[in-house]
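Incident log, support desk, overnight shift.

02:14 A customer reports that sequence design results differ from what the structure should imply. Their input is reproduced verbatim below. On-call engineer (initials T.W.) acknowledged and began investigating.
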């Protein structure tokens, strides 16, 4: 009996030691893996999600977690202390507001979140005029849009003023000498908190047309009837940068470098982005 009890105790001790060893290995494995948090403009949802899946093959030890929303919302979240390693905005304005090296006009609060040595222009997009299936109001151009807005005969979807796509749309309205406040009061404008909301409004036919990026039009299968020129709203540049408070800056820099490479650039180009070199 004593011998059996002693053998049982030895066996139990063995399994306890083995279990402890496995726990140590598991903990070491968890420590070995790194997590990168990317805050990116909503218009990058489909492409960046696909690229993150591809990156698992490049570096299995790194997980990339993405937070997609309007660039203005993401900027506010970063200011308020949200954990973020890389910021990609749909316009320089939101990036400049977090970059201490930007002009005082662009960054009046002298916020210092961006590592300027990592900042680069990653992508260029296009602002487009899209219509629902069948194009019930027969809108074929921005010229048509301007006339219909003056007549009050259509309902157009656009982004809020704190959203880059909304800011580009405001420039287009100004190009045609249209007063946004008057149009809104006349009930011919409706707003979305980000470009995906405007895209959905058009896709569902709840508006007669909308202004979105060409990449969102492509992803949603919408008909593009016209494209804005740089003279109408400026270039649509997406800057990207690693943030100064990143605790995985080396890994973040490596991922940002990957975003400029041929594999990621190919994914971006598939939907209409123009990848930009450093």
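02:41 Re-run completed on a clean worker. Output:
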């Amino acid at each position: 009996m004593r011998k059996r009890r002693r053998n049982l105790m030895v066996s139990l001790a063995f399994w306890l030691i083995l279990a402890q060893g496995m726990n140590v290995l598991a903990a070491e494995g968890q420590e070995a893996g790194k997590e990168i948090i990317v805050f990116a403009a909503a218009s990058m949802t489909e492409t960046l999600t696909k690229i993150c899946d591809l990156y698992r093959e490049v570096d299995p030890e790194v997980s990339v977690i993405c937070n997609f929303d309007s660039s203005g919302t993401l900027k506010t979240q970063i200011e308020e202390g949200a954990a973020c390693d890389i910021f990609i905005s749909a316009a320089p304005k939101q990036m400049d507001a977090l970059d201490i090296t930007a002009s005082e006009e662009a960054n009046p609060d002298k916020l210092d979140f961006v590592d300027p040595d990592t900042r680069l222009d990653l992508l260029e997009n296009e602002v487009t005029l899209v219509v629902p299936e069948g194009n019930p109001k027969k809108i074929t151009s921005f010229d048509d849009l301007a006339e219909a807005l003056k007549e009050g005969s259509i309902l157009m979807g656009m982004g809020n003023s704190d959203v880059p796509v909304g800011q580009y749309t405001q420039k287009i309205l100004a190009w045609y000498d249209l007063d946004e406040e008057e149009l809104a009061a006349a009930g011919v404008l409706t707003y979305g908190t980000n470009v995906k909301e405007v895209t959905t409004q058009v896709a569902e036919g709840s508006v007669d047309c909308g202004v979105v990026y060409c990449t969102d039009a492509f992803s949603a299968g919408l008909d593009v009837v016209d494209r804005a020129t740089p003279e109408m709203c400026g270039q649509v540049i997406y800057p990207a940068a690693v943030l100064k408070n990143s605790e995985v800056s080396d890994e973040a820099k490596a991922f940002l470098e990957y975003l400029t490479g041929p594999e990621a650039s190919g994914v971006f180009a598939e939907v209409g982005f123009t990848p930009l070199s450093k």
